[in-house]
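The protein record passed on for reference:
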Amino acid sequence: MGTFRIDNHKNPGENRMTIRTSAFARIAGTAALALVAAWGRPAGAEEIVVSNFGVSANGMPYGVARAKSFFKEEGANVTGILTSAGGGTSLRNMLAGGVPYAEVNPGSVVGAVHQGADIKLISDTVLTVAEFVWAVRPDSPVKSLKDFKGRKIGYTNPRSTSQGLAMLLLEKAGLKLGDAELVRTGGFGEGVAALDTGLVDIAPLPEPLLSEFRSKYRIVVKASDILPPLANVVGVSTPNMMAQRGDFIRAVIRARRRAVAFMTANPDEAGDIVAKDYNLASAVARAAVRNLTTSVTDGIPYWGTGQIYLDGLKRMIEVQRTVGAVTGEVDYGNIIDTQFLPDDIKAVK
């Protein structure tokens, strides 16, 4: 899919077009996201790239950092957040636009490097997949992970994280891939619609979709209960931008770290900010922020500070390998560069 620009959040009525649709259509994909082109970007404004900003929970801290002026206070005048529906597209947007910093899924980084791209993983931003649950209709006979056998399980698209996690769940249940049918739905919102119509028996429900429809469906499996920490998205840059824009990159990482701390201490205020960026009801956004700031998987939080957790990164790469998104060996020492992280989180864990 193409790129959507989210700019000048100070004046949303003047600088942002809002498409109001049904909840299903809005969350179904980035094209139905509430935010498209904007004009009048101020002089000296900077842009970053964040996959699925405005749709998926990973990017929420960037909106908070912008709204609370953390970017500006740290020395990065970030007013524009470029977003797209996938990591590969986001990387292309970063490379084509000369953007110094992007947040994407690690599988797309490794895949791009294997294809010859010169990209470095410079921060580890979302450390788990705790935003995921798998849900059923209230009257479903599916009560536990073992009951996935013989059922139709929704996932978004081939080579997606949701496909890899569905396969990992079957493995955790002691089931083979052929013991259940994985059904492509095209998106999380479409997956909910497929669940309603009976096209699938089980659907992944990530935040903030979970908080919006929690009362309508029954949760069978929570990722935080059954899956280990898996690096969800990471911060990346190119050696060229790292050489030219090092201070900007450091400022972005510091500002995002401040935003995560703010969200933990002030979940309701942060939720109200998220509600505007994600076109959500305030109560829904507050619930999503509270859920994820309190989530801990094996001692690891959902939103990280930027410090790199190598085990979680390796686990996610193996998940991506199972769906064909990653092939070949991975030279982590060559891909990872921690020079832009603050000194207290520079060491790889």
